Every structure is written in C-alpha cells, then in structure tokens.
Amino acid sequence: MKPLVTGRRGWLTLVALVAVAAGLALVVVAVRAQVSAPQPPRSVGAVDAPSPSSTPAAGGRVKPTARPGPRALGPSAPRSISIPAIGVRSVVNPIGLNTDGTLAVPQPGPHLDQAAWFENSPTPGQPGPSVVEGHVDSDRGPSVFFELGRLRPGNVIRITRADGVRVTFTVDAVRDYKKSRFPTDVVYGAKDLSRPELRLITCSQFDPAIRHHVGNAVIFAHLTATRR
Amino acid sequence: MRTSLRLLVPIAAAALPFAVLAGPASAATNSYQATLNPLNHSTGTGMATITTNGNSAQVKVSWSGLADQFSGGPYPHVQHIHIGGAGHCPTAADDKNGDGVISTTEGGPAYGGIGTTLSTKGDTSPKAGTDIKIAPSGGSTSYSRTIQLSADTVSSLQNGTGVIVVHGLDPATLSKKAQNEKSDLVPSLPLAATSPALCGTLSSMPSGGVATGTGSTSGVEDLGTLALGGGLLALGGAALVARRRVAVKA
C-alpha cells in the first residue's frame, strides 16, 4: 500500500491544506464575532402621547390634573431594570452631574456596564420624566444598552424600586438626536409634568473619523402599571 | 471585542470622558428641574421645570396627592421659589420645637426666604407669598405660567440655591400638639395651612448630550484572529498554487 503522504512535496501539500483549513476556520470565527449596535430610527412614535391633560394651561390658569394612567408614586430610588424585548437585566446606580454641567456616565469599574439613574430626575413612578442612561459599548465590548436602538413603541421596561414597588413603562417613541442638537427640555422636561414617564439614553452615530459617538438615542416611555 | 484588541483599549478608555461635544442650543436660555418630594409626612409628589431667558421664566409645576379640602372649599397651596438659603430641603432635624412639624420658619436655614411667589395670576413678588386667593388649590395641579424673575431669584437659580416649596398640610396628619398651633406666618391660620408639604431643589438640567459609549464595538472585533486566519489562508493557498504549478510542469 502507498503511504498517504510521500516525499517532501507531499508533506508540503498537507501543511498547505491544513493552513488553509485553519485559516478558514479562524476567519469564520472572527467574522461571527463581529458585533455592531443596532442603529435606532431617527424618529418613531409620539413623544407626548395624547392624554386629556396634555394641553398646557395658558397664562396662569390652573386646572385639575386628569389621571388616565396609574397614580403617580412617591419617591423611591430605582434598584434594577429589565427590558425583556432586548434581554436587558441590570442593577441601577444613582449618578449626578459632572462639574461642567453634563450628565456623568458610569466610569470604568464594577458599575461601568450597569444602568444609571440621574439622581436629580424623578424616581421611576414619580410625576415627570425619570432618566436612566447606560453605555452602548465600553472598553469591554457591548454594554448594558447595546441593543437599545432595537426598542419600538409598545415594548415594556420594568423597574424595581427600593420600596419594593415594581413599575412598568411602555415605550411611546424612539428618537435619535445629534448631541450638538440635543433637546434638553424635551428629554429632561415634559409637556405634561403630571405624567410619570421614563427616558432611556445611550450613544449612537459613531463617527470613525473622530472615534466618538456624535448622537444619542432616547427612548420615551410612560408609566402603565405599578405592582407592590 | 476580545483579548486580541487589548491594544486599542487605552485609546477607547481615554475617549470616555471627552465624548460630549455640545452645549445648550442657546447660551441665553437656561433650564432647571426640581423633583418635589413630600415633607412633614405629606403624601404628595410632583415635579417643576423652569426655563429662563434673561429674567423671563417659563415655570411649570405639577403635583398631586396634597390635602384637597380646607374649611369646605378647595385647599389653597401657596408655592414659591425660595432663595438665599443652603439650597436644600429641610429634614426632621430642623424641627426645632419638636412638634413633629417643620414649620416654614424652621425650614428657613435650609431653603431660605421667598424669592418669587408662584401665584396663578397677578403679583409674583414675595409680598404675595401668603395670598391664598391667587394660590393654586385642590389636591393636585398643573401650573404653567410665564413670569419675570427678580435678579436675586435668577442668581439663586444659577448658583443652585433656588428651592421650590409648596405649602399646606392636611391637619389630620399632624400631632395633637401641632394641630392646635397657630401658623408662624399668618397667626389667623392654623400651623398646618402654611407649613411646607412639598420641597425640591432646582438644579440645572444636564447640558448637551450624554457620553454613553466608547465605540469599541464600532470597528472590527477580533482583529488578531482575523489577521491570523487570513494569513494562514493566504500562505496555504499560495503554497498549494505553487505545488500545482510544479506538478503541471513535471
């Protein structure tokens, strides 16, 4: 019987074949490891979903607040967040402002890839927009809000508060803003401050030329259920 | 991103603190927000926003869960921007006379005096501070009014010592002792009527966007694996081609 591999040329062929096979396998592995954050749509849904009390009072007129959704809750800091549609489950840590007046973000360390609640905003369930942010990616790769751009109106976000109350918010709208034109009053304020709302913020629009994200994706949601 | 990309990590990490590129759209406009939390065991909750342009201010205040009725009518809740204090809300430690109620006077060191009265119409000066005829009334309100602020109030907002206080407690929630006390502001009224029920420090809304990303997933992950695989493919392929050419010649 002839040996499978004979002579120097035979060995060379075998080595070349093995190299090609290994190379192919590595390329497939590497290509499969490629990830990129889903890009949020520029604008989907209505930020101020219609409600009977959403017409602002003119002048100093005061009118009783209509209450179509669940009752607003008292203050209690958020402890955890889950977003079933995109598989997010995270602890929520409080975060404040940087000295330059911008919103601080989770820093390298144990909290880097966890969600953060802006402590000057209402706690989730209180009247007004409660603000929760998270990185889209960090130096460890995809971060807690990597898939935030996939959320659409109707998706739900669940938050558990320190008082044990679980609040559910339903997405009204998705917006992708340029950071240079970030609408502060729309995101941190609201047309109807009586409505308990939620904003989720992460980065979008990575610009490879400057190696920075130049956009922010913002999810607008309102309170639809509370459970003790 | 895998270990093969470790070299790029310091670059990405260095970018983290810098990623905010823009400030507010107009330098003349400032936006403030306050979460209104209950004081003195009130059950209320609310939020306020103020957008200033010079001395002009668009003020929005919304709250619910406060005392609804007072002597058979809607309960008047006077509300103010307090200024010149420490810029925070009082705590139980500020209840100097131990009656279980932080009176408006006892809260003074924390939130200061009245800078602007958030009345529903007419006078917005400190003089209108206890005028219940032009105060929002009932258990909840959505207040929206454009007013002129005094220079003192504007500078308090800017240095973070503006505090929104909404007054008026349900007397039934007070201790027996406190229920019989007179108001420290208007002696003809009971203590409950003028004591603070909601309080929130006004702080600047965050400016510009949020730096929530490093771009680590925007490039090519596993660059090393990809390069190694591609290299092996190229070398092996080249070897095979060379081998075939030799074979053809032979």
Report what the structure shows.
Helices cover 14% and strands 35% of the residues of chain A. Chain A has two helices and twelve strands; from the N terminus they run αββββββββββαββ. In chain A, the strands form two sheets. An eight-stranded mixed barrel of chain A has the order 3-4-5-6-11-12-10-9. The termini of chain A are far apart. Chain B is built from six helices and eleven strands. In chain B, the strands form two sheets. In chain B, strands 1, 2, 3, 6, 7, 8, 9, 10 and 11 form a nine-stranded antiparallel sheet that branches. Chain B has helices at residues 9-15, 108-111, 151-158, 176-179, 191-194, 223-249, and strands at residues 29-38, 45-53, 56-64, 69-70, 73-74, 79-84, 112-117, 141-148, 163-167, 196-201, 203-204. Chain B is α+β, with helices and mostly antiparallel strands and 250 residues long. In chain B, strand 2 and strand 3 (56-64) form a beta hairpin. The chains are: A mainly beta (228), B alpha+beta (250). At the A-B interface, helix 1, strand 2, strand 7, strand 8 and helix 2 of A face helix 1, strand 1, strand 2, strand 3 and strand 8 of B. Strand 2 (62-63) of chain A pairs antiparallel with strand 8 of chain B.
